[in-house]
Amino acid sequence: MKLYYAPQACSLAPHIVLRELDLPFELVRVDNSTKQTATGEDFLAINPKGYVAALQLENGDVLTEGPAILQYLADLRPEANLAPPNGTFERVRLQEWLNFVSTEIHGGLGWLFNSQFPDDVKALIKEKLFKRFVVLGQTLERQDYLMAGGFSIADAYLFTVLRWTQVFGIDLNRWPALMRFQVRIDQRPSVKAALAAEWV
Ligand SMILES: N[C@@H](CCC(=O)N[C@@H](CS)C(=O)NCC(=O)O)C(=O)O
Question: Which residues form the GST N-terminal domain (predicted)?
């Protein structure tokens, strides 16, 4: 498998999960401004959506959209328990979190990267985002991970997007459970290895 990624982008989540699962993979860096890969390919020919993450399977199929990629990977090694089995209520609960992280947290923080947005619009986005942080905090105050059963793909995703708060000067200590969560996930060997591999 090939994971097309950009350093510190949302592709870090499947990168962490590939390492958690000890699956063989190749990392291919994408320059998001030129849409060229480090290997000289036209990224738009691989993923016409033009964004990371994209996962190319051994048969050539390309899978996109973080929550889909994460679930595909987790299901390759169900014994690792990074996602409850399909067809269970717990799997739907996981999908509920993946969707929340994708639309409310990834989506919200993602808008803040847009340099064309005026400050008052960014302030409104932050106000909404902080309400979502309170919701996350309510769960993470009573358990270490989003899912009661332990570390899952949703945690890899949440960790990845919450890291961006540093870029915008948002101090996660305002939501202590979120700060503790970031520190906890940051200590995982898979996370350390993924960050080291992307740090170029
Ligand atoms: N809906 C996509 C969004 C992916 C996304 O936002 N990718 C960003 C990096 S975190 C990107 O590559 N943006 C570059 C662009 O849109 O041109 C997903 O959930 O995977």
Answer: 1-81
